[in-house]
Amino acid sequence: MEQKYIPKSSIKAWLTSIKDDGKHIYAPVAENGKTHFKRVKSVDEISMGHVQTAQSAKGMVFPRTEKLFSYVRQQGDVALQDYDPNDIPCSTVVFGLHPCDAAAFKPMTSVFNWGSEDKPFSERMQRVALVSISCSKCDVFCFCTSVNGHPGSTEGSDILLTAIGDDGYLVEIITEKGKALADKHAEFFEAAATCISKEEHLAPVPVKFSAGEVQRKMAGAFEGEIWKKQPLRCLGCGACAFVCPACTCFDIQENAKGSNGGDRMRCWDSCGFSLFTLHTSGHNPRGAQSQRWRQRLLHKFCYMPERLSVRGCTGCGRCSRACPVDMNLSELLNEFELI
Amino acid sequence: MNELKSKVKELLGSKEIDLFIGYEQGTRLPRPLLAASCEEADRLIFDEYCTGNLAVYLTRKDLVGGKKVGIAASYYAMRSISRLLDENQLQEGAVKIFGLPPDGAGLKVFETVAEVKQHLQEAPAPPKQVEDGWVKEIEEMPAAERWRFWASELSKCFRCYACRAACPMCYCTKCIVEVNRPQWVQPWAATASNMEWQINRVMHMAGRCADCGACGAACPLGLPVHIIAHKMVEMVTQNFGEPAGKGNVLSTFSPNDKENFIR
User: Domain limits at A184?
Assistant: First the structure.
């Protein structure tokens, strides 16, 4: 891994150059007290004052709504038209995401490309480069360090920047994609001092539970009372799933245009919704919120590590910040350690 | 606070209630606590920071079905309870309602609908300056700018339905947005269908909304969707007066209505 240094004053110029090369830049933009990833017209719109953006960056590769294919009915036959790769921007740089968001691209890839490759997802992955920034601050909901993450982790990023004091960033170039971005505009970068210690510039995110222990306890507690007790106050909305960087549940919908054709859509869904598992017969195998809560946690912390060797949680804490009734995930996971 | 704990423990102990819906200290703010034992009741708190509308749990059959229930009710929860009683979603006497009247006299237990309604008439509604400020600001925008404002805000909505889940009056077992034969509202996130969803949601609140703001408070993206409901309340009150007892603007009509289209 190559290391460089970029003065703070050069960051905007570098991003502007990338933008002038024709790439789309998505970055955090503050609006009405929340920060959202948006495509920026000017790098001056970027804001980095937040602990966490309201939404993760997953929409870059798993849009909340996308067309999978179109169909037209013609003289008793149906003609299919696959999704158009030209609808996906040819090259996008996501700037300013945190390591917990970058790390989530691995569990997403594991799910979408499990068994067979998901073409639109992979196409988007190929066209997106992630320029992340290490966390210099955290809040009470952050728990990356409890799920093998780290406020300075390079996992999933193409380039990771870590603020060293107020004047500049240590630049870690992790992948070929990242190298191409840095090399194209090498004039903005300097050699990194050999003595830089990244650690002391990172947010102190405390370890709140042992993920291994939680997994063991959960796996053996399928019928446990804890699943019923914990989600009593849960309202069953999808806020936690929709802000989660690693949640991949989707629904397939029909955008019918009259009776002669239409589009087949994929859109975000949540295993916390009762409708998610409702059968046409009226039977619902996960009819109670407690069953859906159990599914959500077992999927992330047991099934995914068992089957895909990756956890479905990166400890970003968004679910807990977004929850209208304070289902604080690290607190609730901690309770599993105690059973 | 200790008064509430001991009263709730007494009621749980004597089996007068099976479940108490109250608040406990959360990560940053008070959060709902559904207490079924004295041990759990020990975690109860109730003060001016306990403003979340707990009435939302009263129509959850899986939680309260067949149970005798007590609830800590903020002013707006009390209003929701009154509306739920009007809509036959609650039975008189089925719920023990604990309130904190603003006279400072401490905890009060409301036993009858009449007491709840009287309290709502006498107690001043908590101010809505922030919401009124939003409405004023939005109304002063020229139409094109207002459209841009709502299009920009609602373009962000990802249809998690936290606004619906947090609303005590959204108790339908099948929401219009989930009806697919025919599909009235496209269920995926897109600016136009997000607007349709919010318009539908608020239209269904006409004359029913307690104006508690829970929808907006629940939005994980901070979208001011409660402002639409707040404006609706203002318009309904101006045109039809305060809701009074059975029936509401959404569900009733009069043969003597001044509009012709309804006859």
Answer: 2-337
